[in-house]
Amino acid sequence: MMQIKVTAPAQIHTTIQLPSSKSISNRALIINALGNGTFQPENLSDCDDTQVMVHALNDGKDTIDIMAAGTAMRFLTAYLSVTPGTRIITGTQRMQQRPIQVLVNALRELGAEIEYIINDGYPPLRITGHELQKDSISLPGNVSSQYISALLMIAPILSNGLTLTLTGEIISRPYINLTLQLMNDFGAKAQWLNEYQLKVEPAPYQSIPFYVESDWSAASYWYQIAALSNEAEIILPGLFETSYQGDSKVAEIFQSLGIESIYGNKTVTLKKTGKIAERLDYDFINQPDLAQTFVVTCALMNIPFRFSGLQSLKIKETDRMAALIKEMGKLGYILHETDGRILSWEGERCEMTADTAIDTYEDHRMAMAFAPVCVVMPEIRINNPQVVSKSYPYYWKDLKKAGFIIEEV
Questions:
Q1: Model pTM?
Q2: Catalytic residue among 49, 247, 289, 359, which?
Q3: What residues in the chain have per-residue pLDDT under 50?
Q4: Annotation says 289 is catalytic
């Protein structure tokens, strides 16, 4: 097992070129392919998930291995259903245990031809693509937004478009809205009819030049570093004030932790204000990927918190609730979980584990959210640091650029 020791500089003045948005890259690639795009989207993410998608769309292979990329599995399953030819889509052992039945059932209802090769309800799939005629479908609103996005993105090329009705609680509206905005950028006509219904006209995509903005989720770790530092000024190019990404909310929430965002031309500069809230209560239902960042930051700044809307954390790369409670315990903080959706800390402390090393649970966000702990403590050790490749392959390199010392133990 690999382990690294991370030590922070006394002050931080740096410019960091963040990875591009994975969410936008993956959607832009599918939409561009469905529109037979002549332009390749610019500034694409170089993370695993996006590279897998690029290969799947360009290599023309009959068997597509998307490895561990969940987004690619879902988006490509829908894409292949409307693209002529028969192909097999498969992935890692773990991917073959991740359910896809909700999406397959929905596509079959629209007329798609999809077979399970090994186990019903799970990849690998054999898909024969052809034109789909049916124009309306209903799904529970609490399923993964990637299923909903996958269906929306193919809708403009369905013979009669699509009316999609979502029932019950809708859990990931920002991601659905991101998909709609990108579809409309590429010439589709897609919108909410009311709170529960989406309508997409049968109007084909246009090919346009498209620039992918930087990833706000990745920016969150630099906000965290700025907040924990005594002195910091960090410039992040490629971020837009009016962003399509739900996680751009990070700028607003960090104001409570003393960080101001100054927007320039396609750039944001983080500066410390010294104005820090006494406690932070926030509902992360629309930004669950930011939860780990704020849990670690608030505890280390000694700011009690109550974070709700975290129910999706249990089904991410790992059970993030359990992982946070365990790893923060090693650092001497006692967190409380309430009914699977709330994490809180009211200042309770316990003995720190000697020679502590943070476990990452095959979860990129555990590694990135805990590394900045060294800004406050003399050092932090991180196990299996290579997990960051999923969304931010150059994270450790960027920390070094900012003056952090990273040594393999």
A1: 0.79
A2: 289
A3: none
A4: yes
